[in-house]
Amino acid sequence: MRSAASPAAAPTAAPRAELMLLTGGNYMPFADRAWPEQGLAVELVSAALEASPSPVDFELDWEDDWGRHLFPLLDEKQSDMGFPWVKPDCAATPEAPRCSQFHYSDALMDLPIMLFTQAESDLTYESDADIAGLRLCRPGGLFTHDLDRAGRNWLSEGVIDLMQPATPEACFEALVSGEVDAVSVNVFLGAAKIVSMGLRGRVVPMDTPLSRETLHVVISKTHPRGTTHLYRINAGLAALRDSGQYNEIVSRHLETFWGRLK
């Protein structure tokens, strides 16, 4: 128990938990302080740590500027682990900073990346050959590795024109004005923007995902307890899947998400 400080004493900072987690808001249904349980990913990671061998005390730091998470906050170990992050194609680009400087946990969940087009568009996507010459939009700051991975090279070889405005809203505005042929974002973000921007009936997702990515917990490769913390997360996720709790958490959050869009 901490003793009472005298009037002249400086305030004492509260001790931090053994494991500090970092996430950010406005990423429904995965992380947001106003979402039930603060988000699907928050509940999954918390439950995994509680189910892991030798669990430790942990706390959650919130930083809504996602651009600060990897660098400097996690790279400088101001927080220990961050989530949820898409894992790049590190086999193809091991030198990329997100690959060379971070470890990734086992996947938290699958994330379909879709093409959203105007409802009256005659565009089809059955194979990558259908993409040649299109004008795509993806908000700046989001990953683009799926557009330029081995066998695609859409960016490096100029197969597509890519617009990267600051916000998802700007992408969908460009779509309805005819400036681009399709918007490429994850299925949850796209569906939410269609509803919030009043685009029902005007913008629709194509049937086939452009790519399937996975969400992960990340930790700096220079973290002194990196492998130990990763083991906790991975062992906890395996325990959740074995018990059926993983499916219960994911199903409940997805039902809430799609229900709110009706």
Helix share bin: 25-40%
Which CATH C-level class of the largest domain is it?
A: Alpha Beta
Number of contiguous helices:
7
Q: What is the first-to-last residue Cα distance?
A: 51 Å
**Over all CA atoms, what is the radius of gyration?**
21 Å
* Number of domains as seen in the coordinates: 2
The run of helices and strands is EHEHEHEEEEHEHEEHH
CATH fold annotation of the largest domain: D-Maltodextrin-Binding Protein, domain 2
CATH architecture of the largest domain: 3-Layer(aba) Sandwich
Bulk shape: globular
How would you describe the overall organization of this protein?
This protein is α/β, with parallel strands linked by helices and 262 residues long. The protein has two domains: 19-110 and 213-260, D-Maltodextrin-Binding Protein, domain 2 (3-Layer(aba) Sandwich); 111-210, D-Maltodextrin-Binding Protein, domain 2. Helix content is 29%, strand content 20%. It is built from seven helices and ten strands. The chain has helices at 40-51, 69-74, 97-100, 168-176, 187-196, 226-243, 245-260; strands at 19-23, 58-62, 81-86, 102-104, 109-118, 135-137, 161-163, 182-186, 203-205, 211-220. Strands 1, 2, 3, 4, 5, 6, 7, 8, 9 and 10 form a ten-stranded mixed β-sheet that branches. The protein is globular and about 55 Å long. The termini are far apart.
